[in-house]
Amino acid sequence: MSVVAKEPGYTSEVRDRVENFHGQQLLYIGWDNHLMYSNPLCIPVAPDMPFSMLPTKILPDLYDLHPDMAKVDWKKVEWLRDGKSFTPDMNESVAGNGFGHKSVLRFATPGLNGLDGRCI
Amino acid sequence: MNTVATAVSARAKKLSQRRKYELLTRGLGWDTTYQPMDKAFPFDTFEGIKIHDWDKWEDPFRLTMDAYWKYQGEKERKLYAIIDAFQQNNGQFNVSDARYINTLKLFLTGISMAEYASHHGFALAGRNLRGVSARIACQMQAIDELRHAQTQVHTISQYNKFFNGMHNPAYMHDRVWYLSVPKSYFEDAMTAGPFEYITAISFSFEYVLTNLLFMPFMSGAAFNGDMATVTFGFSAQSDESRHMTLGLEVVKFLLEQDPGNVPIVQKWLDKWFWRGYRLLTLVAMMMDYMLPRRVMSWAEGWEEYFEKNGGALFNDLARYGIRMPKYHDVARKEKTRLSHEAWGIFYNYTHAANFHTWVPEPKEMDWLSQKYPDTFDKLYRPRLEYWREQQKAGKRFYNKTLPLLCQVCQIPMGFTEPDDPTKICYRETEYKGDKYHFCSDGCKDIFNDEPEKYVRSWLPVHQIYQGNCFRPGTDPTAPGFEPLKEVLQYYGFHDGMDNGEFLDSPDRYNWEKWTSKSAVAGDRP
Amino acid sequence: MADSVFIAFQTNDETRPIIESIIADNPKAVVNRMPAMVKIDCPNRLVVRRQSIEARIGREYDLGELTINLVSLSGNIDEDDDAFILHWD
Hints:
The structure holds three protein chains of three kinds.
Chain A: E1 25-31, E2 41-45, H1 53-62, E3 78-81, E4 84-86, E5 103-108
Parallel strand pairs in A: 1-5
Antiparallel strand pairs in A: 1-2, 3-4, 3-5
Chain B: H1 2-11, H2 17-27, H3 37-40, H4 65-88, H5 101-128, H6 132-160, H7 169-173, H8 180-190, H9 194-223, H10 227-257, H11 261-279, H12 281-290, H13 298-317, H14 328-334, H15 338-349, H16 362-371, H17 376-392, E1 416-417, E2 420-424, E3 427-431, E4 434-438, H18 441-449, H19 451-454, H20 460-466, H21 483-491, H22 506-515
Antiparallel strand pairs in B: 1-2, 3-4
Helix pairs in contact in B: 4-6, 4-10, 5-6, 5-8, 5-9, 6-10, 9-10, 9-11, 9-13, 11-18, 12-15
Chain C: E1 4-10, H1 16-25, E2 30-34, E3 37-43, E4 45-49, H2 50-57, H3 66-69, E5 70-74, E6 76-79, E7 83-87
Antiparallel strand pairs in C: 1-3, 1-5, 2-3, 4-7, 6-7
Helix pairs in contact in C: 1-2
C-alpha cells in the first residue's frame, strides 16, 4: 500500500539512512528472557568491527548490571540474526556476519533465564 | 412556581436553540464566485471522502457563538477563582505525597503540549473543510484546545515554583525522547487530510479513548488532594464531552454520506485506535504506579471505558458496516501488563527524563497484586524487589544504553508478545532496502499502509546517534565527550535535579523539609 | 442485556438537582459516585428533562447549561429545548 497524498508520487526523505551515521551503522541488541533491561538496545558500530568484540567486550559491558552476565558461557550462546538462528564466524566482521544497518542481534543463554529463571 | 411559569411563557417568544443553530450554520456561509470552491478548499477531496450534502452535519449541542462564549466564560471564572484559592492556601503541599507531583510533570510536558498541537490541528481542519457547521465546530474546538493548554500551564505553574522538571514544557516537547510519542502522534494526524484528522482526534481519540485519560486522571487528582488539577481537568473535560459528541456525529455523517466512505473510515479507525491506545501507555503507568492513592487500575479502566462502553459504541456502528478496530483483542491481552512494562521502561531510563521514578512501597505492591493476580507477583514484583534491593545497596539500576524504538509509536520496544508476556514482541519490515522495526502488528500494519510517511519519523535515539541532539557548538569528538550529559543539556534538564530516582531527588528532600511529612506516605494513615 | 449509555457530571451544588432529576426520570439508572465525579449508567436510553430540573431549582433552565459541569457521556444524542436524550437504538 502507499500513502494517500494530495500530489501523486509523494515520497519523503529516509531520515535514518546509513549515510547519516558518520561511517557507522546501527545494531539492535536483545538478550532473550532478560527483561530487567526493559527493551532491546541500540548502538552504533563500525561495520568492519570484528564480531568477536560483541561477546568479549560489548555485550558484557551493555548488560553488566545483570547478575546473569558474569555466568554466561559464550560457547553455549544461541544467536539470532534478524529473527533467524545462525552461527557467527568469530573471525569475521559484523558486516561479514550478515549484519546490515538496523539489523537485530538477539542472543539466548540456555540455563540462564533471568532472576530465578523468571525472564527478568 | 409562578416564576417558572412566567419564565416558560417568556421562552416561547425566543428562538429555539435549534432554530438559532440553523440560522448560524445554514444562513451565514456562501459559495465563492471569484474562484471555484475546489480552489478555495483544495484539501477536502484527495482523501477519497465523498460529501453530497454538508447540511446533514449536525452538532448535537447546537452550540451558537453567543452560547459558546457565555458557557466558556463561566467555566473560566470558576477555574481561576479556584486557582487563586489554591495558591493562597499553598495547595501544592496538600497532595498525598511528593511522588504525586511527577504525574503533573508528565501531564504538562506530554498532554498539555498535545492540547496545543490539537488546537493547531483543528484550526487547520476548520480552514480546510468547506461545510459551514463543520468549520464552526472545528473553530470552537480549536479555541477549546488552546484554552486547555493555557489553563493547564497556568495551574501547574504554581507547582513549578516548588518542584523540578516543569520549567520549559514546550521546549522539552520538541526534543525529549519520550515526548516524541505524543508529538509524533499529533503531527501524524495533522499531516493527513482534514477528514482523517477529525476522525483521528475527534472520534478515535476523544470519543473512544479520552475517557481513559481524563476520568481516572481527574478522579485520581481529587483522590490525591490536588484541587487545582481536578479543576482544570474537569473544566477541560466539560469541553471534551462536547468534542466526543462531535466525534461520533462526524463519523456517522461520513458513513451516511456515501457507501464508498465506509472502508476509508474503517481504515482510519483501525489506525487511530492503535495509535491512540499506544499513546495511552503513559496513562496506564500513571494510574497504576504514579498515583500514591489509586482510584482504579488500568485494566479496570480499560474494561469499563473501552470493552464495555466502546463495545456498545461499535455495536451501534455495526449498522453502517463498521466493525471493532483491528487488534482490540491484543489490547485486551495486554491490559494486565501494559502499565508494568511501561513503568519498567521509565525506571530504566529515568536518568534521561524530566520526572522521577521509584519502586512502589510494599502496600502499593500488594494493591498491584490484588489488581493483577495473574501477572504481578509472577512477572513484575520480583523485578521491582530486586531493584529496591539494589537501590538500598547504593546501586540504583539505570539502563545506560539507548533503546530500540518502534518506528511508528516511537515507544521503546518494551512490549511483549500478545501470547507470551516474557518475550519481547519484535516485528520487522523491509522497505526500499532499509529495515524498520515495530513493537506490534498494529504499528507494523500502519507503516506498511503508508511507508512514505513513516520513513521520515524523527526517532530520538537515531537523532542522538546522528549527532543532532547536542547544543550548537558542541564537539562530539572532543576528549572526554559524554554524550548523555550533552543530550540532557540539549533537553534543558538540570542533571541531578529533574531526573533520576525519586528517593535521591531534591523534590523529596525539599518536600520533607518544607512539610515535615513523608515524601512516600501514599496510603499510609 | 441492552448496552448502557452513560453521563457523568462533576460533583457540586449545581449538579445535585440535575442528578436527582435524572434518577427520578430514569428508574433503571445506576449511580456511581467516584472522587469528585458522579457517573450514571442506564440501559439503552437516558433522558434529562428540563422541567424536572426547573422544578428542583426554581428557575428557568437551559439544557445547554449541562455542558458547564459535564464530564463525559456515551450514546447517540437527541436534544431539543425540553429534553436531552442519550440512546443506543
